[in-house]
Amino acid sequence: MGEKNATEEVLIPRPRKISEIGELYQHSREKWQETHTQRAYCFGSDEVKDLDAVRLQVHGGELTEENAQAKRRAIIRKARNRLQGSLQERGQHIAKELYAFFDGYLHVVSQRTAFEHSGVSPAVQELLTAFDNSSSTNPLPLYRAACQSPIPPELLEPLLIAHVKEFQRKNEEFLQRVPHLKREFYKRALVLRARGLLPVEEPTLKTRFEQTSVQLADPLLRPLNEIYGQYSSDFSLVEIAPDLPGRLEKHTFAHEMYHAFEGKTPAEWRFSEEVETEVSRRLREQGVQDEERTPFIVDMRSGLQFRGAKEHGSSRFHWLNEALTDFFAAEHTNEKPIYVRELRLLRGLLERGKKPLSHGDFAAAYFEPYDAQEPAGQRLAYWNALMKKITESYGSGFLVKLDKFVQEKGVDEALKTMERPDGWKQIQRAY
Ligand SMILES: [Zn+2]
Q: Which residue in 56, 254, 287, 400 has the fewest CB atoms around it within 10 Å?
């Protein structure tokens, strides 16, 4: 392939695009697959581990009870700051995840024994009384209380322990379902491929499928980038939110797996210091040490979504990529799509121009692997062909303008404009 050995070059001054179906990229994916182990990692995992260590030290006589108390306080304070940060940062958006968390809280509260040892403070006493009075299982008052003032450490410690235990239980259940979910998914994908709906070579499909890890996500740890799940192309990782009803879990799984099926444009990348810190943090969350994953290989494109030139720059065509992804997921599961508005906007794009565009042109570009061996201009042949057709239909730069419109004014406004007669001309003129 002419690629240098993966371990020779650690830092490269600029991102250098490499072939998806090439040794360097495949090697990095295999290595990732080897080092990535399934872990039930959730909010509080680290703290509970640290608390256990303190307990052992006390047991072994290495730590006095007094010092242990101080250590435990420091550990809990750290978790509390993170939780408080999340609450302030995410506000209403996190409410769904927090409900489950505070539901666990109620369990803890109902088992008063947890507090017998911890010297209940007046603040906790007040909260407990409030619960007794409300005699409800609604975690809302507690959620509101936590938004306004930090949770008392005496409450947070048993809560963290309960949360970690509950997440581990859910994760074990989930992992038992995964082999079946995967088997059924791949079987169906091959059927759709045979019908001409997935224009991608079977070995490529198989590789992308096999290199994808699946795990349960704790939205409390960090927000998921989609409603019920997420796909991280850099980690070849599908994550699914806990507690989804069966059909929704199946659809979300299919949706995220189609993200895994997307064609990629990988690049060796040198991060800015700031981004490197962020990447390190994410890697640690995944249980991977930085040195296990060098050089940094990042997917600059996944499907029809392109990363901005700067790592922090917004990515392009996110809505379009979700529309395609959810189209395939809906075909796959025969369920209703979730990204309804994005799909309508795609339909508008297909139908409203001077010449109608074909869905197949978008699909071909979506699954296309980047091939660095081809001459410049042909490394993403289907994508280039699609751009040419969109230009013929709407004039130059239209897709970029439409995307800008979506980013500035939202999908709804773009949809309204596209569905007006000749509305697309307004978008074409806007930039
Ligand atoms: Zn998606």
A: 56
Q: 101 C-alpha to center of ligand 1: Å?
A: 25
CA of 90 to the centre of ligand 1 (A): 20
Q: For residue 241, how far is its CA from the centre of ligand 1 (angstroms)? A: 13
Q: How far is the CA of 121 from the centre of ligand 1 (A)?
A: 45
387 CA distance to ligand 1 centroid (A)? 22
Cα 37 to averaged position of ligand 1 atoms, centre (Å) = 24
Residue with tokens 């409410």: 95
Assigned domain for 36 exists? no
Residue 290 lies in a domain: no
Category of 395 on φ-ψ map: left (φ > 0), alpha (ψ -120 to 50) or beta:
left
The CA distance from 258 to 255, in Å, is 5
> Is 106 inside a domain boundary?
yes
**145: CA distance to ligand 1 center in Å?**
34
Instruction: Give the DSSP per-residue string, 64-111.
Output: -HHHHHHHHHHHHHHHHHHHHHHHHHHGGGGHHHHHHHHHHHHHHHHS
Ligand 1 centre distance from Cα of residue 71 (Å): 42
Question: Nearest to residue 428, comparing CAs of 410, 405, 406?
Answer: 405
- Type of residue numbered 359: H
Ligand 1 centroid from CA 50, angstroms = 35
Nearest by Cα to 128 from 149, 112, 148: 112
Phi, psi of 214 (to 5 degrees): -130, 135
Distance 99 CA to ligand 1 centre (A): 24
Å from CA of 10 to ligand 1 middle: 31
- pTM, two decimals, is 0.81
Domain that holds residue 87: 45-165
Does residue 405 sit within a domain? no
C-alpha 309 – ligand 1 centre gap (Å): 21
Per-residue pLDDT of the chain (431 residues; tens, 9 = 90+): 334 443 333 344 467 899 998 888 888 888 877 777 667 788 899 999 999 999 999 999 999 999 999 999 899 888 888 877 766 666 544 455 555 566 655 555 555 444 443 445 555 556 555 555 554 455 555 556 666 666 677 777 877 887 888 889 989 999 999 999 999 999 999 999 999 999 999 999 999 999 999 999 887 777 677 778 889 888 889 999 888 888 889 999 999 999 999 999 998 866 666 666 766 676 667 666 555 544 578 888 999 999 875 544 578 999 999 999 999 999 999 999 999 999 999 999 999 999 999 999 999 999 999 999 999 889 999 999 999 999 999 999 999 999 999 999 999 999 999 999 999 999 999 99
What is the whole-number distance in angstroms between the Cα of residue 332 and the centre of ligand 1?
14
